[in-house]
Amino acid sequence: MSNYAVATTVVTSQHNVSTTVNGQENMNSSLPNCVDSLVNNIQEQNVQQSIANSEPHLEMEFESEASAYDFYNAYSKTIGFGIRREYGNKSRVDGVLTSRRFTCFKEGIRSVDKRCHSTAEPRAETRTGCQARMAISLDRKIGKYKVVDFIAKHNHPLQPPEHVHMIRSHRRISEAQASQIVLGDESGLTPKDLHEYISKQAGGIETVGFTREDLKNYLKTKRKQSLKYGEVGALMMYFKQESENPSFFYDFQMDVDELITNIFWADAQMINDYGYFGDVITFDTTYKTNKDCRPLGVFVGLNNHRQTVIFGAALLYDETIPSFQWLFETFLKAMGGAKPKTMLTDQDPAMARALSIVMPETFHGL
C-alpha cells in the first residue's frame, strides 16, 4: 500500500467515523472539512460585506494593534494583496506599543546579493518598493489606536481572488485541518502525505489555503509546546526534587518564543564518576524518546570493572550544530570544565562540527 493510501486510510478512520441511523449515513469522510469550509465562507462573506464600503481612512479607531492588523489584512484580501507588520514603537516608560506601520507585502527592495553569482542562483525578485500602507498611533486620551497615515495606491498588479488566499498573510490552517494534521502526524505520516491528503479533500493544492512549509512549521510549534507542557513539566518536577543536592546539575535552552528546546542534566554520582573515568567517553543519540522521535543524548563511559557508567543525559529538540554546540558547552560546565581526551560518536556531521568548535583538543573517534 502506498504512503498516500495509508494517509487516506489512517486519517479517515481515526477522524471521520461513518455511522448509520435508520439506514441513513450521518457523517461521511469529508464532513469536518465541509462544515469548516461553510463556516469559513460565512465568516469571509461577513468580513467582505463589512469592509466592502469601508476603506481605511484617517482617524479611524481600533481597540488594539491586533484589531487594526486584522482589519487591514481583511481589506487587503478583498483588494488583492497581502500585508506585513513593519516598524513599531514602544513607550520607554510603560512598554506600551505607541505606533505601528502595516505595509504591502511588496514594500521595499531586496538588498544587493554580494555572493558569487556563478555559484548561487538568485531568487526571483518579489518586491517592487510599493508604498501602499496604513499606520496607526495610540491616542492615550481615549485608549485607542487611530489611523494616522494611509496610502491606497499600489505600483504592481493586484492578485485575482483565486490566488490571493495563498499570500503569506492570508494563509491559514483551520481547526478541522489542524486536527487532521495532528492525527496524521501521530500515526506516523509524513508532512508530504498529510499535505497531499488534505489538499485532495479541499479540492486541490491551489484551494487548500496553506503550503507544505506551513504544515511543517505548525508541527514544529506543536512539538515545542508538547515538550514545554508534557515532558518538561515532569522533568522540571524531577529537577526540583533533585536540586536539593547541591551537586545536582541541570540546564536548559529556550528559543525566541521562550519555549524550552534542549535540556541537560547530571546528578552527583554522574559528575563524580566523570572525575574518575571521564578520559574516554561515548556520546550517543540513536535512542528516540517518544512519538516525535526526539533524540535522547547520553554521555557514557566505562569504570575500572568495565561496567557502563553514565556521565549525563540530554533531551534535544533537533540534531543541529547549534543544539550540539550548546549541549557540549553545558556538559563541560557541569563537569567543571574538564574535557575528555577522547570522545566516540556516530558519523553525524553536525555533531562532529560542534565538537571541533567546543573541544578542539579532544580526539574525535567514530
TrEMBL record:
Domain MULE transposase, first and last residues per copy: 280-364
Q: Which Pfam families match?
A: FAR1, MULE
Q: What residue stretches are annotated with the FAR1 domain?
A: 70-160
- Superkingdom, natural source: Eukaryota
Tell me which InterPro entries the record gives: FAR1_DNA_bnd_dom (IPR004330), MULE_transposase_dom (IPR018289)
Recorded hits in PANTHER family, A to Z, give:
OS01G0519700 PROTEIN, PROTEIN FAR1-RELATED SEQUENCE 5-LIKE
Official protein name in the record: Protein FAR1-related sequence 5-like
Tell me what organism the protein belongs to: Trifolium pratense (Red clover)
